[in-house]
Design a protein that fits this description.
mainly alpha, 79% helix
């Protein structure tokens, strides 16, 4: 009896300790997350709503917003196709080079985005490996939209695959084998069995990929050339405005980017709340 009484559960801390831990966590979140976000919106609106609208609607800002949306709109579908194909192959089939493919998927997590951008410059720049051939055919990749898209794809392509692979591996191949035994073809099996089983994890991965694509700075900064109105995405435009001491405009554009991130976070939270089982399995 006394042994059982003296054996304390790891969750049986005193109310004071629990309050201190919760307070420390909330204080940390407020100091390093909520307060910076509030600062962005407050500083962006410091000049008034008219100045705010002017800052986010002037031509260079509009061009930066459009380019950010274009890069994300191209990168996310490309990563969607790659992530589905790679995760399906890795989880459902055995083939030579499987571990190599997994390693390459994780590569952007271990390579600095700046290094990734530099690689594209060394490949496609005027003095790069393919530069002379591209110049001879009047094709420009670096310091143009194609380079920005390529850099964005590189830094974001692990996100969807890494959400799907664990879930597909946990689900196994029984459902697909049953479908094939009933006469379903490969594409029928994929679209009617495999894809519905991972749809929420897939949407979750797409949201993460989109958020990363819109906020990418390092790789895009190297390949963009910082040409105002042409190759500046929102993060790069914010940097230029801030370096020019145009703080109100910089924070105004940053608030648009922060708002998009908050919308993504809200959708992500709803998905986790409504379909937490599927998503937790995908992230296990």
């Amino acid at each position: 009896m006394s042994t059982a009484r003296n054996h304390r559960s790891p969750l049986s801390e005193s109310p004071l300790v629990r309050r201190l831990l919760i307070g420390a966590a909330l204080g940390f979140l407020f100091l390093f997350l909520v307060l910076p976000l509030l600062t962005v919106f407050i500083e962006g609106l410091r000049g008034g709503i008219v100045r705010y609208i002017q800052s986010v609607s002037e031509p260079d800002a509009v061009a930066a917003i459009k380019l950010t949306v274009i890069a994300a709109a191209i990168a996310v579908p490309c990563n969607l196709v790659f992530g589905l194909a790679a995760s399906w192959a890795i989880a459902k089939f055995e083939f030579t080079g499987k571990n190599v493919l997994i390693t390459f998927i994780d590569l952007p997590f271990s390579v600095s985005p700046v290094i990734a951008g530099l690689i594209y410059v060394l490949l496609f720049g005027a003095q790069g490996l393919l530069g002379p051939w591209l110049s001879a055919h009047d094709i420009q990749i670096v310091f143009a939209v194609p380079g920005i898209v390529l850099a964005t794809i590189f830094v974001t392509f692990p996100f969807i695959a890494r959400e799907l692979i664990p879930l597909m591996q946990e689900q196994g191949t029984e459902d697909e084998e049953a479908a094939r035994s009933l006469g379903a073809g490969g594409w029928q099996t994929f679209f009617r069995v495999t894809l519905p089983n991972v749809r929420w994890a897939l949407l979750y991965g797409v949201l993460l990929c989109n958020a990363r694509a819109m906020g990418e700075f390092g790789a895009v900064s190297v390949v963009s050339g910082h040409i105002r109105g042409l190759t500046n995405t929102m993060p790069l435009h914010v940097e230029i405005l801030y370096n020019e001491y145009n703080f109100i405009a910089a924070f105004a554009v940053a608030s648009v980017l922060a708002f998009l991130a908050l919308v993504t976070l809200a959708i992500k939270s709803v998905l986790e709340w409504r379909h937490g089982g599927d998503i937790s399995a995908a992230r296990a």
